[in-house]
Amino acid sequence: MKAINANAKGLALVCEGRKLFGIVTDGDIRRYLLSGGSLKETICSAVNKNPCFIQEEERSLAESVMAQKELSVIPVVNVSHELVDIIFRKPDKKICKKENINHPLVIMAGGKGTRLWPYTNILPKPLIPVDGITITEQIMNRFSEYGCNEVYIIVNYMKDFIKAYFKEKTPRQNIHFIEEQSFLGTGGGLKYLEGIVNKTFFMTNCDVLIDCDYADIFNSHKTQKNIVTMVCARKNMVIPYGTIQIDNQKQILSMQEKPAVEYNINTGVYLIEPQFLDFIPEHESIHFPQLIDLAMKQGQRAGAYIIDGNQWMDMGQLEELEQMKQKIEQF
After folding, report:
1. I need a labelling partner for 101 at 20 to 30 A (CA). Which of 18, 155, 201, 250 fits?
2. How many CB atoms lie within 10 A of CB 165?
3. H-type helices in 168-303, by residue range?
4. How far apart, in whole angstroms, are the C-alpha atoms of residue 11 and residue 28?
5. Which CATH superfamily includes the segment(s) 2-88?
6. Cβ-contact 315, 208 below 8 angstroms
7. Domain 105-328: what homologous superfamily?
8. Best CA proximity match to 86, nearest among 35, 173, 14, 186
Protein backbone atom coordinates (compact mmCIF):
# COMPACT_ATOMS: atom_id res chain seq x y z
CA MET A 1 0.00 0.00 0.00
CA LYS A 2 2.94 2.34 0.65
CA ALA A 3 4.29 1.55 -2.82
CA ILE A 4 0.92 2.35 -4.40
CA ASN A 5 0.63 5.58 -2.44
CA ALA A 6 4.17 6.66 -3.34
CA ASN A 7 3.87 6.17 -7.10
CA ALA A 8 0.47 7.94 -7.41
CA LYS A 9 -0.60 5.47 -10.13
CA GLY A 10 -3.06 3.42 -8.07
CA LEU A 11 -1.25 0.11 -8.54
CA ALA A 12 2.00 -1.80 -7.96
CA LEU A 13 3.74 -4.58 -9.88
CA VAL A 14 4.66 -7.70 -7.92
CA CYS A 15 7.77 -9.58 -9.02
CA GLU A 16 9.41 -12.84 -8.03
CA GLY A 17 13.04 -11.93 -8.50
CA ARG A 18 12.90 -10.23 -11.90
CA LYS A 19 9.92 -12.27 -13.13
CA LEU A 20 6.51 -10.62 -13.25
CA PHE A 21 4.24 -12.34 -10.74
CA GLY A 22 1.19 -10.07 -10.93
CA ILE A 23 -0.34 -6.64 -10.47
CA VAL A 24 -2.15 -5.33 -7.41
CA THR A 25 -4.39 -2.23 -7.37
CA ASP A 26 -6.16 -0.18 -4.70
CA GLY A 27 -9.33 -2.01 -5.65
CA ASP A 28 -7.71 -5.45 -5.31
CA ILE A 29 -6.58 -4.65 -1.76
CA ARG A 30 -9.95 -3.17 -0.82
CA ARG A 31 -11.84 -6.23 -2.11
CA TYR A 32 -9.39 -8.56 -0.36
CA LEU A 33 -9.85 -6.81 3.00
CA LEU A 34 -13.64 -6.62 2.66
CA SER A 35 -13.75 -10.36 1.98
CA GLY A 36 -12.08 -10.99 5.33
CA GLY A 37 -8.46 -11.02 4.22
CA SER A 38 -5.75 -10.26 6.75
CA LEU A 39 -2.81 -7.89 6.44
CA LYS A 40 -0.69 -10.63 8.05
CA GLU A 41 -0.77 -12.51 4.75
CA THR A 42 1.63 -11.81 1.89
CA ILE A 43 0.64 -9.62 -1.04
CA CYS A 44 0.22 -12.82 -3.09
CA SER A 45 -3.18 -13.26 -1.43
CA ALA A 46 -4.55 -10.08 -3.01
CA VAL A 47 -2.62 -9.83 -6.28
CA ASN A 48 -4.02 -10.44 -9.77
CA LYS A 49 -1.78 -13.29 -10.90
CA ASN A 50 -2.90 -13.11 -14.54
CA PRO A 51 -2.31 -9.50 -15.55
CA CYS A 52 -2.27 -8.31 -19.12
CA PHE A 53 1.27 -7.81 -20.45
CA ILE A 54 3.13 -7.54 -23.75
CA GLN A 55 6.41 -8.95 -25.03
CA GLU A 56 9.36 -6.68 -25.83
CA GLU A 57 8.79 -7.02 -29.56
CA GLU A 58 5.15 -5.94 -29.16
CA ARG A 59 5.87 -2.46 -27.75
CA SER A 60 4.20 -0.77 -30.71
CA LEU A 61 0.91 -2.41 -29.71
CA ALA A 62 0.93 -1.06 -26.16
CA GLU A 63 -1.40 1.93 -26.70
CA SER A 64 -3.97 -0.04 -28.69
CA VAL A 65 -3.98 -2.92 -26.17
CA MET A 66 -4.43 -0.51 -23.24
CA ALA A 67 -7.24 1.33 -25.05
CA GLN A 68 -9.01 -1.91 -25.99
CA LYS A 69 -8.79 -3.38 -22.48
CA GLU A 70 -9.26 -0.01 -20.71
CA LEU A 71 -5.91 -0.25 -18.92
CA SER A 72 -3.82 2.62 -17.57
CA VAL A 73 -0.57 0.64 -17.50
CA ILE A 74 0.89 -2.44 -19.13
CA PRO A 75 4.09 -4.31 -18.17
CA VAL A 76 6.66 -5.32 -20.80
CA VAL A 77 8.40 -8.68 -20.35
CA ASN A 78 11.10 -10.61 -22.20
CA VAL A 79 10.98 -14.24 -23.32
CA SER A 80 11.85 -15.35 -19.76
CA HIS A 81 8.85 -13.39 -18.43
CA GLU A 82 11.20 -10.96 -16.70
CA LEU A 83 9.99 -7.38 -16.29
CA VAL A 84 11.94 -5.03 -18.56
CA ASP A 85 9.70 -1.96 -18.72
CA ILE A 86 6.36 -0.42 -17.77
CA ILE A 87 4.32 1.59 -20.28
CA PHE A 88 1.70 4.06 -19.06
CA ARG A 89 -1.23 5.04 -21.19
CA LYS A 90 -0.98 8.54 -22.59
CA PRO A 91 -3.68 10.97 -21.43
CA ASP A 92 -6.62 11.24 -23.78
CA LYS A 93 -6.22 14.61 -25.48
CA LYS A 94 -9.75 14.66 -26.92
CA ILE A 95 -11.56 17.81 -25.90
CA CYS A 96 -14.81 16.96 -24.15
CA LYS A 97 -17.44 19.67 -24.24
CA LYS A 98 -18.24 20.83 -20.72
CA GLU A 99 -21.63 22.14 -19.66
CA ASN A 100 -21.60 25.94 -19.44
CA ILE A 101 -22.84 26.73 -15.94
CA ASN A 102 -21.44 30.30 -15.86
CA HIS A 103 -21.36 30.93 -12.10
CA PRO A 104 -18.81 32.92 -10.08
CA LEU A 105 -15.67 31.37 -8.62
CA VAL A 106 -14.20 32.55 -5.31
CA ILE A 107 -10.61 31.59 -4.46
CA MET A 108 -9.48 31.90 -0.84
CA ALA A 109 -5.88 33.09 -1.22
CA GLY A 110 -5.23 35.14 1.92
CA GLY A 111 -3.39 32.65 4.13
CA LYS A 112 0.33 32.56 4.91
CA GLY A 113 0.89 29.01 3.64
CA THR A 114 2.96 28.08 6.69
CA ARG A 115 2.91 24.36 5.81
CA LEU A 116 4.85 25.16 2.63
CA TRP A 117 7.61 27.07 4.41
CA PRO A 118 10.29 28.03 3.34
CA TYR A 119 8.81 28.43 -0.18
CA THR A 120 6.11 30.77 1.09
CA ASN A 121 8.63 33.02 2.82
CA ILE A 122 9.58 34.12 -0.68
CA LEU A 123 6.59 33.28 -2.87
CA PRO A 124 2.93 33.43 -1.76
CA LYS A 125 1.15 30.09 -1.98
CA PRO A 126 -1.30 31.20 -4.74
CA LEU A 127 1.70 31.80 -7.05
CA ILE A 128 3.54 28.51 -6.47
CA PRO A 129 3.98 26.88 -9.90
CA VAL A 130 2.50 23.49 -10.69
CA ASP A 131 3.23 22.02 -14.10
CA GLY A 132 4.46 25.32 -15.51
CA ILE A 133 1.79 27.72 -14.25
CA THR A 134 0.64 28.92 -10.85
CA ILE A 135 -1.75 26.82 -8.79
CA THR A 136 -4.26 29.70 -8.97
CA GLU A 137 -4.22 29.60 -12.77
CA GLN A 138 -4.58 25.81 -12.68
CA ILE A 139 -7.74 26.25 -10.63
CA MET A 140 -9.13 29.06 -12.80
CA ASN A 141 -8.48 27.17 -16.03
CA ARG A 142 -10.45 24.14 -14.85
CA PHE A 143 -13.43 26.25 -13.82
CA SER A 144 -13.19 28.27 -17.02
CA GLU A 145 -13.96 25.08 -18.97
CA TYR A 146 -17.43 25.28 -17.39
CA GLY A 147 -17.92 28.98 -18.15
CA CYS A 148 -16.97 30.13 -14.64
CA ASN A 149 -15.01 33.19 -15.74
CA GLU A 150 -16.04 35.71 -13.09
CA VAL A 151 -13.34 35.16 -10.46
CA TYR A 152 -13.03 36.78 -7.03
CA ILE A 153 -9.69 36.24 -5.28
CA ILE A 154 -9.62 37.05 -1.56
CA VAL A 155 -6.07 38.11 -0.67
CA ASN A 156 -4.14 39.21 2.40
CA TYR A 157 -0.60 37.83 2.86
CA MET A 158 1.71 39.27 0.16
CA LYS A 159 -1.37 40.64 -1.59
CA ASP A 160 0.52 43.26 -3.61
CA PHE A 161 2.80 40.54 -4.98
CA ILE A 162 -0.22 38.48 -6.09
CA LYS A 163 -2.02 41.46 -7.64
CA ALA A 164 1.12 42.57 -9.48
CA TYR A 165 1.57 39.11 -10.97
CA PHE A 166 -1.92 39.01 -12.46
CA LYS A 167 -1.67 42.62 -13.63
CA GLU A 168 1.09 41.47 -15.98
CA LYS A 169 -0.99 38.55 -17.27
CA THR A 170 -3.84 38.53 -19.76
CA PRO A 171 -6.17 35.89 -18.31
CA ARG A 172 -9.38 34.95 -20.08
CA GLN A 173 -11.26 35.39 -16.81
CA ASN A 174 -12.46 38.62 -15.20
CA ILE A 175 -10.46 38.78 -11.96
CA HIS A 176 -11.59 40.87 -8.97
CA PHE A 177 -9.38 41.15 -5.90
CA ILE A 178 -10.99 41.37 -2.47
CA GLU A 179 -8.54 42.53 0.23
CA GLU A 180 -8.87 41.29 3.81
CA GLN A 181 -8.02 43.94 6.38
CA SER A 182 -6.97 41.26 8.89
CA PHE A 183 -6.56 37.48 8.82
CA LEU A 184 -10.10 36.10 8.93
CA GLY A 185 -9.58 32.34 8.68
CA THR A 186 -10.98 30.15 5.91
CA GLY A 187 -14.43 31.67 6.08
CA GLY A 188 -14.45 35.20 7.47
CA GLY A 189 -13.22 36.88 4.29
CA LEU A 190 -16.35 35.77 2.43
CA LYS A 191 -18.27 38.51 4.24
CA TYR A 192 -16.69 41.03 1.84
CA LEU A 193 -18.71 39.40 -0.99
CA GLU A 194 -22.05 40.43 0.55
CA GLY A 195 -23.85 42.63 -1.97
CA ILE A 196 -21.23 41.85 -4.63
CA VAL A 197 -21.90 38.19 -5.46
CA ASN A 198 -25.64 37.66 -5.71
CA LYS A 199 -25.88 34.21 -7.29
CA THR A 200 -24.76 30.68 -6.47
CA PHE A 201 -20.96 30.54 -6.45
CA PHE A 202 -18.12 28.04 -6.18
CA MET A 203 -15.50 28.55 -3.49
CA THR A 204 -12.14 26.81 -3.33
CA ASN A 205 -8.98 26.99 -1.29
CA CYS A 206 -6.01 28.09 -3.36
CA ASP A 207 -4.04 24.87 -2.83
CA VAL A 208 -6.39 22.16 -4.13
CA LEU A 209 -7.49 20.74 -7.47
CA ILE A 210 -10.34 18.34 -8.11
CA ASP A 211 -10.75 16.29 -11.26
CA CYS A 212 -14.49 15.77 -11.70
CA ASP A 213 -17.59 17.13 -13.44
CA TYR A 214 -18.17 20.58 -11.92
CA ALA A 215 -21.55 20.83 -13.64
CA ASP A 216 -22.65 17.66 -11.86
CA ILE A 217 -21.66 19.22 -8.52
CA PHE A 218 -23.80 22.23 -9.41
CA ASN A 219 -26.80 20.12 -10.47
CA SER A 220 -26.56 17.97 -7.33
CA HIS A 221 -26.43 21.09 -5.15
CA LYS A 222 -29.55 22.51 -6.78
CA THR A 223 -31.43 19.19 -6.69
CA GLN A 224 -30.75 18.80 -2.96
CA LYS A 225 -31.71 22.45 -2.36
CA ASN A 226 -28.65 22.99 -0.18
CA ILE A 227 -27.49 26.36 1.06
CA VAL A 228 -23.96 24.92 0.91
CA THR A 229 -22.49 21.76 -0.61
CA MET A 230 -19.07 20.49 0.45
CA VAL A 231 -17.06 18.42 -2.03
CA CYS A 232 -15.66 15.45 -0.10
CA ALA A 233 -13.05 12.88 -1.14
CA ARG A 234 -13.64 9.29 -0.07
CA LYS A 235 -10.52 7.69 1.39
CA ASN A 236 -9.72 4.27 2.81
CA MET A 237 -7.27 3.67 5.62
CA VAL A 238 -6.19 0.43 7.25
CA ILE A 239 -5.59 0.81 11.00
CA PRO A 240 -2.28 -1.01 11.59
CA TYR A 241 -3.38 -2.40 14.95
CA GLY A 242 -6.01 -4.70 16.34
CA THR A 243 -8.97 -2.67 17.61
CA ILE A 244 -11.02 -3.53 20.70
CA GLN A 245 -14.58 -2.45 21.51
CA ILE A 246 -15.47 -2.43 25.23
CA ASP A 247 -18.56 -1.67 27.29
CA ASN A 248 -19.02 0.62 30.32
CA GLN A 249 -17.56 -2.04 32.64
CA LYS A 250 -14.45 -2.30 30.43
CA GLN A 251 -15.44 -5.76 29.29
CA ILE A 252 -14.45 -6.70 25.75
CA LEU A 253 -17.38 -6.78 23.34
CA SER A 254 -15.53 -7.46 20.09
CA MET A 255 -12.10 -7.48 18.50
CA GLN A 256 -11.05 -6.75 14.95
CA GLU A 257 -7.57 -7.19 13.53
CA LYS A 258 -6.29 -4.25 11.46
CA PRO A 259 -9.71 -3.04 10.25
CA ALA A 260 -10.14 -1.00 7.09
CA VAL A 261 -11.89 2.32 7.66
CA GLU A 262 -13.63 4.38 4.97
CA TYR A 263 -14.08 8.09 5.57
CA ASN A 264 -14.82 11.36 3.75
CA ILE A 265 -12.36 14.26 3.69
CA ASN A 266 -13.22 17.92 3.20
CA THR A 267 -11.43 18.89 -0.05
CA GLY A 268 -11.79 22.64 0.51
CA VAL A 269 -14.14 23.06 -2.49
CA TYR A 270 -17.74 24.21 -1.96
CA LEU A 271 -20.84 25.41 -3.77
CA ILE A 272 -22.57 28.20 -1.88
CA GLU A 273 -25.81 30.17 -2.04
CA PRO A 274 -25.45 33.96 -1.46
CA GLN A 275 -27.83 33.73 1.54
CA PHE A 276 -25.10 31.75 3.32
CA LEU A 277 -23.14 34.99 3.70
CA ASP A 278 -25.71 36.13 6.28
CA PHE A 279 -24.23 33.63 8.77
CA ILE A 280 -20.75 35.17 8.63
CA PRO A 281 -19.95 37.60 11.47
CA GLU A 282 -18.46 40.98 10.61
CA HIS A 283 -14.66 41.38 10.98
CA GLU A 284 -14.27 38.08 12.84
CA SER A 285 -11.82 35.26 12.13
CA ILE A 286 -13.79 32.08 11.56
CA HIS A 287 -13.23 28.86 9.66
CA PHE A 288 -15.65 27.62 7.03
CA PRO A 289 -16.73 24.39 8.81
CA GLN A 290 -17.81 26.57 11.74
CA LEU A 291 -20.01 28.58 9.38
CA ILE A 292 -21.61 25.39 8.07
CA ASP A 293 -22.34 24.39 11.65
CA LEU A 294 -23.98 27.78 12.31
CA ALA A 295 -26.16 27.42 9.22
CA MET A 296 -27.21 23.87 10.13
CA LYS A 297 -28.23 25.00 13.62
CA GLN A 298 -30.56 27.46 11.89
CA GLY A 299 -32.19 24.62 9.96
CA GLN A 300 -30.35 25.16 6.68
CA ARG A 301 -29.49 22.25 4.37
CA ALA A 302 -25.78 21.43 4.10
CA GLY A 303 -24.92 18.60 1.74
CA ALA A 304 -21.93 16.70 0.46
CA TYR A 305 -20.80 15.73 -3.03
CA ILE A 306 -18.55 12.65 -2.92
CA ILE A 307 -15.61 12.09 -5.25
CA ASP A 308 -12.96 9.37 -5.23
CA GLY A 309 -9.82 10.14 -3.25
CA ASN A 310 -7.72 9.96 -6.42
CA GLN A 311 -9.74 12.84 -7.92
CA TRP A 312 -8.51 15.25 -5.25
CA MET A 313 -5.07 16.84 -5.18
CA ASP A 314 -3.84 18.94 -2.27
CA MET A 315 -0.53 20.78 -2.25
CA GLY A 316 -0.81 22.02 1.33
CA GLN A 317 2.46 20.31 2.34
CA LEU A 318 5.73 19.83 0.46
CA GLU A 319 5.34 16.09 -0.09
CA GLU A 320 1.77 16.64 -1.30
CA LEU A 321 2.98 19.33 -3.70
CA GLU A 322 5.30 16.78 -5.31
CA GLN A 323 2.46 14.27 -5.61
CA MET A 324 0.26 16.94 -7.22
CA LYS A 325 2.93 17.62 -9.83
CA GLN A 326 2.98 13.90 -10.70
CA LYS A 327 -0.80 13.49 -10.77
CA ILE A 328 -1.51 16.59 -12.83
CA GLU A 329 0.19 14.96 -15.83
CA GLN A 330 -2.67 12.43 -15.86
CA PHE A 331 -5.41 15.10 -16.19
Report:
1. 155
2. 17
3. 214-224, 288-297
4. 9
5. CBS-domain (3.10.580.10)
6. yes
7. Spore Coat Polysaccharide Biosynthesis Protein SpsA; Chain A (3.90.550.10)
8. 14
